[in-house]
Write a structure and sequence with these properties.
This protein is mostly helical. It has four helices and no strands. α3 packs antiparallel against α4.
């Protein structure tokens, strides 16, 4: 995927959030995260940022176990790439 396409997906998800269409936003964010993983890798900072946004959306949708799992996955990746002592 082209970086501009990834940006466009993120922008669409943000707009859906603003419109209160959280379910649609979650679907676009998941697609965006998967595209980032394929294009940049699972531990890339941009991939991890999108992962955090998706986890937050899952929490807003009351899908707390999924949100927790994704937040933990993101934290593990960040500690692996940045180190546990990174500020």
């Amino acid at each position: 995927k082209h970086p501009d396409t990834l940006t466009a997906l993120g922008n669409l998800a943000a707009t859906l959030h603003e419109l209160g269409r959280q379910v649609e936003a979650e679907q676009v964010e998941r697609r965006c995260m998967e595209a980032h993983e394929e294009t940049l890798g699972p531990d890339h900072p941009k991939t991890l940022a999108v992962m955090g946004i998706l986890a937050h959306t899952l929490g807003k949708l009351k899908r707390h176990l999924e949100a927790e799992s994704l937040h933990r996955r993101r934290l593990e990746a960040m500690e692996r790439t940045l180190g546990p002592e990174h500020p």
